[in-house]
Design a protein that fits this description.
Radius of gyration: 25 Å
Number of domains: 2
Number of helices: 11
Distance between the termini: 40 Å
Mean pLDDT: 84
Length: 275
């Protein structure tokens, strides 16, 4: 009798978390869809009642028509590939240099005192301020855009990595020294495992900044790309084209951010998001 009563009490406790997870997944999907449909409906109503003239706010139908035209012409695909290529090269360079610099600064207090003010100065300086120099130094094409992406991503990554290393409890390093860990072993077996969650977050934030910068850089320093597509549409008074380029930019940005988010599910990183 006691065993039967005990089973009745345990079963609901085991089922509830499964139901909760299913509900959360359902809400994660349906709620954003509802919000998007509401925004589309508001957009449609504004166009139907001519709150703004057609040349200032194109209708959803006009945007879809322009999207088909650009896809058939192949311009949209070429511009998207060009932008993704530039942001990939610039961001990889920034991460490849910024994270090691942050690790070095995090482990050396004297270096932090010497270089942090300079890094903060450049971090607060808008990357777009480098546009005239980028064009003069690298002319027109991929190089100035890659340079601007690097400048936008390097300093936040370096400072975030440095701050994460500096905040590691000192007991971790004392234990590592007791086990006679070498410098490389301390970095690979103590430092990196401790800061991987913070590095993933810093990568996502820096990528967001880089994505904004690439659009602005392509408007003035390139002959193709998503940013150039918006600039060309503006010059031709084709805001319908500009709108769907904006939609493509936002969709690609979200898609790549979701790829970064998958890193948080890795066993060695997930613990930092579950605390």
């Amino acid at each position: 009798m006691r065993a039967a009563i005990h089973e009745k009490k345990v079963l609901p406790v085991q089922i509830k978390p499964l139901q909760t997870r299913k509900t959360v997944k359902y809400h994660n999907f349906i709620l954003p869809v509802i919000v998007v449909f509401c925004l589309l409906f508001i957009w449609y109503i504004l166009c139907v009642f001519h709150v703004f003239p057609a040349y200032a706010l194109p209708s959803p139908g006009a945007v879809l028509k322009s999207l088909r035209e650009e896809l058939v012409a192949g311009r949209l695909v070429n511009d998207a590939i060009a932008s993704l290529w530039r942001i990939a090269v610039g961001f990889v360079l920034a991460a490849g240099l910024g994270i090691p610099v942050g690790l070095w600064l995090g482990h050396h207090g004297f270096a932090r005192k010497a270089f942090v003010p300079l890094l903060n100065f450049f971090r607060f300086l808008s990357p777009l301020a480098w546009i005239p120099f980028a064009i003069l130094w690298f002319h027109i094409g991929d190089k100035p855009a890659i340079f601007l992406i690097f400048m936008a991503s390097f300093f936040p990554l370096a400072l975030s990595t440095m701050s994460s290393v500096a905040n590691i409890p000192s007991i971790y390093f004392r234990v590592a020294h007791d086990y006679n860990y070498k410098s490389i072993e301390i970095i690979t077996r103590v430092t990196l495992p401790a800061i991987l969650p913070q590095i993933v977050t810093a990568l996502r934030l820096s990528y967001g900044i880089a994505w904004v910068v690439i659009v602005a850089a392509e408007m003035v320093g390139c002959q193709d790309g998503l940013g150039y597509g918006i600039w060309e549409a503006r010059n031709g008074l084709r805001l319908d084209i500009a709108v769907f380029y904006m939609i493509v930019i936002g969709a690609l940005g979200m898609a790549i951010d979701r790829l970064f988010a998958q890193l948080t599910k890795l066993p060695n990183i997930r613990w930092g998001y579950e605390r």
